[in-house]
């Protein structure tokens, strides 16, 4: 059993090979829908070792086989610990050959797993590599940056870190516990004076997760984890050689009440706790702006990733036969694919035309009812029973439900569209196929 599949990428073999040698390549090619995560990446394709974490504390150790290595042409990895019987004798040969139209990549996997199980994995890898290389090509050549990042171990931070390092940039993780190699200790309200020494850019992603019952303690955690830490980091950046400060934000700025016309970056602030919090969060970056640093506030919509955020919840609900439609489902949901979100952060770091608030949403928002239908269609599950609107209110409280789950927000990425930004997944169907593992192999 196993599978052999090939596909063509329109780039020179040296470019494609070099991308695979860089830190982050394994993370970029590991599907989010699989229950494994790379925790140690091989330093060499010739004889390095990669370790993946699995549920229940299990690990998958893959070692590159020197006998199956030819620089620029082929590398091979084998499973050396068989955490589950199905991957015993696993062997994956990656071949790269010249083609008139670019580089042909052939994946040969020997495994006890049947081809139908491996097809979604290979399809994900094919799409991810092609779109990552295409994004880098469109972005052009840039000097490598040293980037300090908070929140680097969340699902957005992990994806962005891997994308930046495959492009040749260096990411320094700012962490609150004891730092390891490549990390620096960050105290959110009392950062060390030398924290940003040698840093060209800051990406600030850290903050208390929004989901949870909107009681006073949770609201305080949401607010306090964002506003003061952002202000202190911004003040520190103002005293350093940092050139660009990219801070997370949210479309909660516009309030939950909806709008008769699409909302863009010129729309005034809405009402409610999240609108107030986001406004103060963005204002906390002012010290960096006053110091002449280019500041970008990424107002993210609902990020769709199968390893974090709301999509795993919607997927679990759909798997039970329930619908992820709330009430009549006739309210807007402004979403963004995870890879499009990281593209936007990446672009904010290198494109001097971006400054101030930037809506990070797909160009085609959908009604909640359409989102529910698309998830059910992708998973081939029936849409049986909608969730009454009192359901989210019971879990999140009235305020939390209205500001998070039931918010009616028709947001457009006007700034990005004006600059001609290309979205990988402008439509929901393709975004869900990638994240849920329902894409087809190229040529299949």
UniProtKB/TrEMBL annotation:
Residues 387-434 form the DUF1731 domain. It comes from the Bacteria. CDD domains: SRPBCC_3. Pfam families: DUF1731, Epimerase. InterPro entries: DUF1731 (IPR013549), Epimerase_deHydtase (IPR001509), NAD(P)-bd_dom_sf (IPR036291), SDR39U1 (IPR010099), START-like_dom_sf (IPR023393). Residues 147-349 form the NAD-dependent epimerase/dehydratase domain. Belongs to the NAD(P)-dependent epimerase/dehydratase family. SDR39U1 subfamily. NCBIfam families: yfcH. This is TIGR01777 family oxidoreductase. It comes from Corynebacterium breve.
């Amino acid at each position: 059993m196993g599978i052999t599949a090939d596909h063509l990428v329109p780039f020179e073999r040296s470019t494609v090979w070099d991308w695979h040698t860089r830190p982050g390549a394994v993370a970029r090619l590991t599907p989010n829908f699989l229950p494994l995560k790379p925790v140690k990446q091989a330093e060499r394709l010739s004889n390095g070792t990669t370790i993946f974490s699995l549920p229940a504390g299990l690990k998958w150790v893959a070692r590159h086989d020197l006998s199956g290595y030819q620089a620029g042409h082929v590398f091979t990895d084998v499973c050396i610990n068989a955490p589950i019987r199905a991957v015993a004798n696993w062997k994956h040969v990656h071949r790269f050959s010249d083609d008139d139209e670019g580089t042909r990549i052939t994946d040969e996997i020997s495994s006890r797993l049947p081809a139908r199980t491996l097809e979604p994995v290979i399809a994900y890898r094919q799409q991810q590599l092609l779109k990552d290389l295409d994004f880098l090509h469109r972005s052009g050549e840039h000097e490598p940056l040293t980037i300090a990042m908070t929140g680097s171990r969340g699902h957005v931070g992990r994806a962005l870190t891997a994308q930046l390092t495959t492009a040749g940039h260096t990411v320094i993780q700012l962490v609150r516990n004891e730092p390891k190699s490549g990390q620096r200790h960050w105290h959110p309200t009392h950062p060390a004076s030398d924290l940003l020494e040698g840093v060209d850019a800051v990406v600030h992603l850290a903050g208390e997760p929004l989901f949870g019952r909107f009681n006073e303690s949770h609201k305080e955690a949401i607010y306090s984890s964002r506003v003061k830490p952002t202000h202190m980091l911004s003040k520190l950046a103002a005293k350093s050689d940092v050139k660009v400060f990219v801070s997370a934000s949210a479309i909660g700025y516009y309030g939950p009440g909806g709008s008769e016309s699409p909302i863009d970056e010129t729309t005034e602030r809405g009402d409610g706790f999240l609108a107030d919090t986001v406004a103060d969060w963005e204002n906390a970056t002012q010290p960096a702006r006053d110091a002449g640093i280019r500041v970008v506030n990424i107002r993210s919509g609902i990020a769709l990733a199968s390893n974090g955020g709301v999509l795993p919840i919607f997927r679990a609900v759909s798997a039970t036969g329930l619908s992820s439609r709330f009430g009549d489902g006739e309210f807007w949901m402004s979403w963004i694919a995870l890879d499009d979100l990281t593209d936007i952060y990446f672009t904010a770091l290198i494109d001097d035309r971006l400054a101030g608030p930037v809506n990070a949403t797909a160009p085609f928002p959908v009604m909640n009812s359409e989102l529910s239908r698309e998830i059910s269609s992708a998973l081939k599950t029936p849409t049986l029973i909608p969730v009454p609107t009192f359901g989210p209110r019971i879990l999140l409280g009235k305020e939390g439900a209205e500001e998070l789950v039931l918010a009616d927000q028709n947001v457009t990425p006007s700034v990005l569209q004006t600059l001609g930004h290309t979205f990988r997944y402008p439509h929901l169907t393709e975004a869900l196929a990638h994240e849920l593992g329902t894409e087809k192999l190229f040529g299949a």
